[in-house]
Write a structure and sequence with these properties.
Strand content: 5-15%
Shape: elongated
Number of strands: 12
CATH architecture of the largest domain: 3-Layer(aba) Sandwich
Number of domains: 5
Oligomer: single chain
Strand order of the largest sheet: 1-2-3
CATH superfamily of the largest domain: HUPs
Radius of gyration: 31 Å
């Protein structure tokens, strides 16, 4: 094997968490610096009760949506049982591992009764009821974790317990399976969240017992919400699917995730994916927890939306609407509608809310109706607007605006006193695309029809 080999190894127990997505992105960025480097996708599904095929599909879907491909895999640990069995036999034959019947309570009692602070078991024959396989930790020396982000950590072997690496049925435990996989797959760099830091000494001890080289580690700081607590569902979006369903763009999410704990300099915020590949390095990753702020992501996403070609934004909006089951994805005027709000939105999800009135029967927001239509002069304003709109030659934004501003001037009212009743009559809401764009989008016939319906409702 040549080049550096990175791996992304999620446990498929649910949706891909935003922290896991950042880990995947960092590994991907590092592996894409050279054509000689590779990223391996491995699914650590030894937790048989919680790991599901549905979760695996969700993780693969999230990675593909983010545009993060892989060079090998996906490998599943549940399909590598023979490899773990072979290595377990080697360790048992050499004496590096042994069968032991002690459970967690037995270990605690033995440590309390003994003079030492570590547990060393009593080997028993294979097949002894209740026995599991423990790794024999050396009495002397240290286990050293070399971490690009956190520096060097040393653990005295004399203080480490002999730990279980396989159950009574020989099925591997997490730290054993991971070490075997990293060795056999030639992983040179392990970049993962620092919730795995406590596992690293055990994995290094397994690698040492196997006679395998240790990879270089980098443990990323965990993500927090704006309240300083670990990121979770209570903070809003917690998974890649949450972000996709809210209407964020892949490139904006990649850009924002990259900045969660890393920065190139104090000024640069926006990076193309190519620039991220070129500039990203582990040495500039902070040791402090990073804060996921969805408001900042929304601001960044709005920038990306405004930078998109209008036709491309319309295509992505249609794709989003189809996926979310929102009517109007195939409407011939969708591009016109999207262009009308491109400068006003931060996510794709906001677009249907602002222009959806044009693609489906109107639904009146009663609170908006009561607040706007209950004011004096609303019926007169609507009637005057209708009269003017009937007569204009071209029903486009320019002529619509001229006509309506003329109506406001003749009535001696502020434009808002005319535009707000008109907006509610046309869209059913107080917030929508601009009033001139909305009228042009609906066209003369539909606009007049909705104004007439509103006037009839006001008179009833």
């Amino acid at each position: 094997m040549s080049g550096h080999r990175f791996r992304f190894a999620p446990s498929p127990t649910g949706f891909l968490h935003i922290g896991g997505a950042r880990t995947a992105l960092y590994n991907w960025l590092l592996a894409r610096k050279s054509s000689q480097d590779a990223v391996v996708l491995r699914l650590e599904d030894t937790d048989r009760e919680r790991s599901t095929d549905e979760a695996i599909a969700q993780i693969l879907e999230a990675l593909e949506w983010l545009g993060l491909d892989w060079d090998e895999g996906p490998y599943r640990q549940t399909q590598r049982s023979e490899r773990y069995a072979d290595h377990l036999d080697r360790l048992l034959s050499s004496g590096a591992a042994y069968w032991d019947t002690a459970g967690a309570k037995d270990v605690k009692r033995a440590k309390e009764a003994g003079e030492g602070r570590r547990y060393r078991g009593e080997p028993v024959p294979e097949g002894t009821p209740g026995a599991a396989v423990r790794l024999r930790v050396p009495d002397e020396g240290e286990t050293i974790v070399r971490d690009v982000i956190r520096g060097e950590s040393r653990f005295e072997n004399a203080l480490l317990d002999d730990f279980v690496i396989a159950r009574a049925d020989r099925s591997p435990l997490y730290n054993f399976a991971v070490a075997v996989d990293d060795s056999e797959m030639g992983i040179t760099h392990v970049v993962r969240g620092d919730d795995h830091l406590s596992n690293t000494p055990r994995q290094l001890l397994v690698l040492g017992a196997l006679g395998a080289d240790a990879p270089l580690y980098a443990h990323l700081p965990l993500l927090h919400g704006t309240d300083g607590k670990p990121l979770s569902k209570r903070h809003g979006a917690a998974s890649v699917q949450d972000l996709r369903d809210a209407g964020y763009l892949q490139e904006a999410v990649r850009n924002y995730l990259a900045l969660l704990g890393w920065g190139y300099d104090a000024e640069t915020t926006f990076f193309t994916t190519e620039e991220l590949v070129e500039k990203f390095s582990l040495e500039r990753v902070s040791r402090s927890p990073a804060v996921f702020d969805e408001q900042k992501l929304s601001w960044m996403n709005g920038h990306y939306i405004r930078e998109l070609d209008p036709d491309e934004l319309a295509r992505r909006t249609a794709e989003y609407m189809e996926r979310e089951g929102i009517p109007g994805a195939g409407h011939p005027q969708l591009s016109q509608a999207v262009a009308a709000v491109q400068d006003k939105v931060s996510t794709l999800g906001e677009i249907p809310r602002l222009v959806g009135f044009a693609f489906a029967p109107i639904e009146i927001d009663q609170a908006a109706w009561d607040k706007v239509m209950g004011k004096d002069g609303a019926p007169e304003a609507l009637a005057a607007a209708r009269e003017s709109l009937v007569t204009i030659e071209r029903f486009d934004e320019e002529q619509v605006e001229q006509a309506l501003r003329g109506v406001a001037e003749r009535l001696g009212v502020k434009p808002g006193a005319l535009f707000q009743p008109l907006r509610v009559a046309l869209t059913g809401r107080r917030v929508s695309a601009g009033i001139f764009e909305s009228l042009a989008l609906l066209g003369r016939e539909e606009s007049l029809k909705r104004i007439d319906a509103a006037l009839a409702r006001l008179r009833s």
